[in-house]
Description:
This protein is an alpha/beta fold and 110 residues long. It has 1 helix and 8 strands; from the N terminus they run H-E-E-E-E-E-E-E-E.
Amino acid sequence: MTGLLKLYARAALALAAALLLAASAAAQQQPEVHARDTAYTPPTLTVPVGTTVRFVNDDADIHTVTAKDGSFDSGLLFQNDTWQYVFNTPGTYEYYCLPHNWMVGTITVE
């Protein structure tokens, strides 16, 4: 391999590594809660102020993400639906599923 080709190959590898790191960082920045087997997974989550949390319905059943204090509500989420909410204020947010009120979760915002 000539010197120029080696340089291009190294640059391409460095770019690929940087893109993978950026994608990994982006994935870490948006935590997810999944509705699965009529439970939220994880059931508790702690995030910094300003974090967008993505909720995903992995069940065949319809679910909601409804704050106990009424501050947010996803509406009905069918299988594979997603919904996002930005937690801009510190505090503890308890939520549940309207059709399955035993499904509960908590987001702590610091």
